[in-house]
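Case 211 in the screening queue. Each case pairs one protein sequence with one candidate compound; here the compound is zinc ion. For every case the pipeline is the same: read the inputs, emit a complex structure as tokens, and attach any notable structural observations.

Predict complex for case 211.
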Amino acid sequence: MVRNTLTELEQSTDTVSFIGGWLCLDFINTINWCDSDKPNDRIQSYPDLLVWSQQADILTGHEAQQLLEEAKLHPQKAELTFMRAIALRETLFRVFSAIVDHDTPDARDLAAFNKELREAMTLLQIRPTKTGYTMGYQGEEKALDRILWVITRSAANLLTSDKLSRIKKCAAPDCAWMFLDMSRNRSRRWCAMNDCGNREKARRYYKRKTA
Ligand SMILES: [Zn+2]
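Case 211 output:
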């Protein structure tokens, strides 16, 4: 089902917290495993992806509306793009999990990632603006998968940056959110203190009380 207007789009998802410190990590965190047997997935359709992209500043409202129109014209293509996005999210989760564990990512995951990266890079171009130049993608206005290109590039930039050792996974046992620990002494343990950190504190408190 493809929704009709942006207002409907905006109302369809609750506010997301962006705690990853890097776009591709925030994308991984669109699925929330906390406090439930079933994950709470914010991206369950192509329009959900548009909503998140707006919140993540990948798309403006106008660009999201344009892609929504395009998705209505090509529902099958939109569904395929949605499935590709979920596959990319899983690939990125496995790749960055391996890095957190000081492991080498699976070659199949890197191959899948590189396939997305090639697609993103083919269309990358420089455009003049009033004050300088900007990067963009050829034909992006109507490209349903332009969101994937931006996420893929964000992941490539992180993988080749000096921040690899700062990537962490939340210490709460039921949370798999990832973030960049930019604290000076690298002491950050939780995705968000007022969420997982406090829950963990409460858990320990009741454990002590019942002990
Ligand atoms: Zn957490």
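Case 211 observations:
- The first strand starts at residue 31 and ends at 32.
- DSSP finds eight helices and six strands in the chain.
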